[in-house]
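Q: I have 131 residues here and want to know how they pack in 3D. Can you give me a structure?
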Amino acid sequence: MSGYRNLLNKKAVALSYNEEKNRAPVVIASGMGYMAEKIVEVAGEHEIPVYEDESLATILTQLELGSEIPEELYQAVVDIYAFFLRFGEKKEGQRPEASAEKAPVSEREQAAAPETLEEAADGGGEPAAQN
């Protein structure tokens, strides 16, 4: 498949979670093609982890900006959040909140279901799902 066709089929979504404002993570950016490339690029510039999951990205790109993810997707997002926690611990030998993996505290919000955040850890990031 050509590079152009690959770019057209690319999807990316950025999620944000603020437990004081929302019940669940919210879609803060979503796009396909060039927009997906820019979402991933901005995530990289801000050291926000990116997780590749074509099926999840396809579902999330169908949601409106500013909407909370549906309850059916909580577990998938929690699994991604847990993946980043484990990845950060292996990479830095410490919890990701203390590593350079995350955006500054004042800018970051967790990306997981509220009930799991308390169980998983304090802090987090804004994972971008992409395919």
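Q: Anything worth noting?
A: The two ends are 15 Å apart (CA to CA). Strands lie at 11-16, 26-32, 50-52, 128-130.
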